Amino acid sequence: MALRLRYEIDTPRRLREHVHFVDGAGYFFFPGVSAARGTPAVLEIGFTRTDESTHLRGSVWARPSTGIWLELIAAERCLEKLESTPRSDRRVATEQLVLVEPASAPAFLCRLRDVSNGGARLHAELGVGARIRLALPEAAPSGFQLEAFARVAWAGAAEAGVEWNRGDLSSRAAVLRLLQVADEEWEGARTLSHPANCRCMKDQKLPSVLLLG
To answer: Is residue 54 within 8 Å of residue 91, measured between CB atoms?
Structure first.
């Protein structure tokens, strides 16, 4: 399972002052943590001014004695999208394995990338507009299969975003369980807050940083 870290800061704009972008990837220093270079990592970022959150995936890029440098894939694009289109639902990064059954197509296993009350992101190739059934590997307390129905809202390279059928009662129960399991995956995650005495709070420019491998 990936290393899970949380960071709290007031706005995406403030966060940009602490992320160094190279070819779209973001490099972010997280102090007080030790992990082997190359360890998969997920950084959840909570924005205290708006109560929004997002998460960035990547790996440990370097490990100086005071913490770790994270290399976060597509961080620049993710932050740009967040600034232009704020998210109302909290998304929780997860690695749950689910069974996906598109209409008129064979079912297959895939992993969720994140989940929210409104939808989910799947590590799968699906067509936009497709209707799917998503089954959990467990039953509800009643004994019936936990399953959610959704529509594919967007699709990219080996990823797809789906919107839940909010009118379906069985889908609601399955989504609640997906969120519960996702939150359990984050139990014990290291959490840090942006320091109030950070030099960026005084509108001073950050010094140039040399990233050492």
So the answer is: yes
Q: Which residues contact 199 (CB under 8 A, 6 or more apart)?
A: 206
- Asked whether residue 208 is domain-assigned, the answer is no
What does pTM read for this prediction? 0.83
Closest CA to 123 of 41, 196, 26, 57: 57
Is residue 93 within 8 A of residue 58, CB to CB? The reply is no
pLDDT tens-place string over residues 3-21 = 999 999 998 889 998 999 9
Considering the domain architecture, whether residues 41 and 99 belong to the same structural domain is answered as no
* CA gap 149, 28 in Å, rounded: 37
Are 8 and 194 spatial neighbours (Cβ–Cβ below 8 Å)?
yes
Beta carbons of 165 and 126 less than 8 angstroms apart = no
Nearest CA to 27 among 65, 2, 64?
A: 64
The CATH number given to whatever domain includes residue 7 is 2.40.10.220
Q: Which domain holds residue 19?
A: 3-88
- Contact status, residue 135 vs residue 97, Cβ threshold 8 Å: no
Q: What is the pLDDT of residues 30-56, one digit of tens each?
A: 999 999 999 999 999 999 988 888 899
Q: Is position 27 within any domain? A: yes
Closest to 54 (Cα-Cα) out of 85, 97, 100: 85
Q: Which is it for strands 190-193 and 3-9: parallel, antiparallel or unpaired?
A: parallel
User: What is d(CA 128, CA 162) in angstroms, rounded to the nearest whole number?
Assistant: 9
Residues in the chain, total: 213
Strand 108-115 versus strand 97-102 pairing type? antiparallel
